[in-house]
């Protein structure tokens, strides 16, 4: 098995920088769209054989150094008692607005309520045994709660923030329950065979550093501390966190995911040599010419300056209209330009 990715997570020397892409199993690949055309998004997530197939596709097509489970961050929220649909974005029929709503939520039994996720991981461990490691993932408690309270995506998450400020007892009760669920879910993935875990806090960066520290950090810290992670590195990605990396670092992950709003070199200087980093090419660079893609890959690698513990990635998910050949070229550039 290609171990570059796991070695880099632990800060070990590697022969070249490992690379994978957030949302690498996705709509930019015709092979993915061929599978997706046969079913709904939720059906794809809940059919282990199909979810495994689309997880493996980019490993073979792009030549990346890790696979990431195909699923959705809201998968374990649905069995808490919230009806979920995608139209195409996530939509909850009855958002959380009161303490009574929070009290109705149940903590799922992961083996009974989301067996398809665990079965997908087991299939993937067999299929990827001679290829690359498998990353499991989940949403951070705050990001999951944002969708549960708003009921759908939002530009400003005003309903969530209003609850945070004006009904803190409801907010904290919700976050406690979501964090407990999240811990159970990620530990079930580790038990099923996930070799690394990425925690996506897509909306953590919408808060000020002070509010992040007060309202989010305690729950993410509790989540990470509650994972059975002896040999399983945890990647913590907070989109928009470039102004508060030292605060985010306190949550205790092994690898810090970085978006493109901060220099990777500056982030490494702030975080110190003991913490690995992942990132951080702007996803829109993949629309550019090969010359520019290579230039920008080289820039990110140069910012890392050869320090161990760097996993190359985009600063957020790959965009659906990116030409697949550009993603393939980017992966080739990372491997060629970083080869020891």
What is the strand and helix layout of this fold?
Blueprint: H1 4-9, H2 30-36, H3 41-45, H4 48-62, E1 67-68, E2 84-86, E3 90-92, H5 99-104, H6 110-113, H7 115-127, E4 134-139, H8 141-150, H9 158-166, H10 168-192, E5 196-201, H11 209-225, E6 234-238, H12 245-249, E7 255-257, H13 264-271, E8 276-281, H14 290-304, E9 310-314, H15 324-338
Parallel strand pairs: 1-4, 4-5, 5-6, 6-7, 7-8, 8-9
Antiparallel strand pairs: 2-3
Mean of all residue-level pLDDT scores: 97
Major sheet: arrangement of strands: 1-4-5-6-7-8-9
Question: Which quaternary structure do these chains form?
Answer: single chain
Helix segment count? 15
CATH architectural group:
Alpha-Beta Barrel
Q: How would a crystallographer describe the biggest sheet? A: 7 strands, parallel
List the main descriptive attributes of the protein structure presented here.
single chain, 340 residues, alpha/beta, TIM Barrel, seven-stranded parallel beta sheet, two-stranded antiparallel sheet, 15 helices, 47% helix, 11% strand, globular
In short:
This protein is α/β, with parallel strands linked by helices and 340 residues long. It is 47% helix and 11% strand.
